[in-house]
Every structure is written in C-alpha cells, then in structure tokens.
Amino acid sequence: MTNDGQNSLVYDGENHAFSATVTGSSSGAAAASQGIPTELLAAIGIRETGFQNMTGDYGHGHGIFQLDDRWNPPSVIAVAYNPSAAANIAGGKLATNLNFYASQGIGGLGKYAAAVRDYNASPGADHGKVWRLGAMAASEAQRPYWLDVGTANGNYVSNVLAIARNCF
Fold it and tell me: What is the pTM of this model?
C-alpha cells in the first residue's frame, strides 16, 4: 500500500463509528467508490496478504484480497492480481455485507464485525447471517468478537477491526 503521509483514522468509540482517509492506494479509491470505510477495506488487504499480490489458501486465494477461486467465477480470478480491480471486487463484497446488516437494523461496531466475518466466511455466510442476527439481537452487538469463531486462525474479525482502528 502506498503511504504518502496523508492517511488518517478517527474512531468514535461511543458511536462505534470509523472515518478514515487513505490516499494513494487502490483500497482508498475502491472504498470511496463503494461508500465503505476506507480503513476497513485496507485492513482486509493487510490481514489477507500484508498488501502483497500473492496466491494463498493452498492455491485458492488470489491477489491482495485473496479472492477465492472456489467461490468466485473465472472472470473475477482473471483480475484478482490487478490491485484496483481486486479492491473494487473486495469492496463490493464488503459493501453488500454492510448494506445487508444495515437493512436488518444492525448498526455500529456489530455491523462492521459481521460484515468482515462474512467477507472471510463466504460462501456459507448467507446461512450464518440468520444465526448472527439472532445473537446480535441478544445484546451481542457491543461484543462482536464472538464472530471470530470459525474464521481464519479464529481471530479474523478482531484482527481486521484492530488493524482498521490502530494502523491508519
């Protein structure tokens, strides 16, 4: 990721809201075009590959955002190593997840945590949404890190949110 010294992050703990500026990066432009928090998309790229264009997950994850060839069509995998295209695809997935939770009345940190979890847990995420919504309705929205269960290394959500909060 390009860092030109103009990156900034403001985290409002009371409202569990993020606002950030990440300039000079593919993730910054993609996030802006998708209407999602810039630092959240950048944090996914950092968590997935350290913002390196690489193949991972036993040959199934492609590019900075580890677009998986088991769940994505060949047309997506064909552009997975193009940082701008991959950021737009990853941003679209994250935006879809965030919009889903917003439409269900889930806000704040719980919405971001669930959306990040679904990014990591696809394609089974659609089935998990019902379970997670029920758990969030039972006061889990303020403690979303239970969403780490079943994610990469059992800490994907908390790690991505920590990166988003602390690294920009």
Answer: 0.74
